[in-house]
Write a structure and sequence with these properties.
The chain is an alpha/beta fold. The chain is 53% helix and 10% strand.
């Protein structure tokens, strides 16, 4: 075999081997992230924070968000979280995540004075800082994060970085096929949070929604 062809063959094998190792490491990290979320303690808290998510075209919560709200409702009705902090962004005309969450909770019997609305929760870090600021003003120390299990480790890190004294977690006990992609995505997302906040604890929240951006380009996000 000519030397050039032999060199190319070895280079290809090396690249393939590195790719396999990288994918295996990524998979192991995703399993670790999910395990951390699934085993996060769920205890009584002064405040439950519900992270926003997608809305239907009529402005009502999609199933994934409704499931989070149902978890918060169970906590509230059990007397384990007397106040609910709903945090989300405004994605367009009539698509106010926080307002939709508030309306859902009101329709299910939660008194309005027990609901705190945060319309500036455009991402996990923003929600963490807004909620912790509210906790400081109110003299609260125990917070329950309500999201999907794979998201809880990053959310917990953001809250602890923002100064929350005691952080717990709860999640909907339902698996979706989309969880596979979301769990994979959480690996670099958590890594970015750890690096950015490790270098600068006051780093500004950055919103990154590449999938929604691409969908919008081809008309699927409308």
């Amino acid at each position: 075999m000519p030397a050039r062809r032999l060199f190319r063959s070895r280079a290809v094998r090396i690249v393939v081997s590195l790719a396999v190792i990288a994918m295996a490491a990524w998979l192991a990290a995703a399993v670790y992230v999910c395990a951390r979320g699934l085993t996060m303690p769920h205890e009584h808290a002064d405040l439950a924070v519900v992270f926003g998510n997608a809305l239907e075209d009529d402005g009502t919560p999609k199933p994934i968000l409704a499931a989070r709200l149902d978890v918060a409702l169970q906590c509230f009705r059990a007397g384990d979280c007397p106040r609910l902090f709903v945090s989300g962004s405004i994605d367009g005309p009539g698509l106010d995540e926080a307002a939709a969450m508030r309306a859902y909770l009101l329709a299910h019997g939660v008194p309005d004075e027990r609901i705190v609305v945060d319309r500036a929760g455009d991402n996990t870090l923003a929600t963490a800082r807004n909620a912790v600021a509210y906790m400081r003003v109110q003299g609260l120390s125990r917070v329950l994060l309500v999201s999907q299990y794979y998201h809880l480790p990053r959310a917990r890190f953001a809250f602890e970085a923002a100064g929350a004294p005691q952080v717990f977690g709860a999640f909907p006990h339902a698996f979706r096929f989309m969880d596979l992609y979301s769990s994979w995505r959480e690996v670099p997302a958590l890594a970015v949070y750890r690096v950015r906040l490790g270098l600068n604890a006051d780093a500004r929240p950055v919103t990154m929604r590449p999938v929604l951006f691409l969908m919008g380009l081809v008309g699927l996000g409308k």
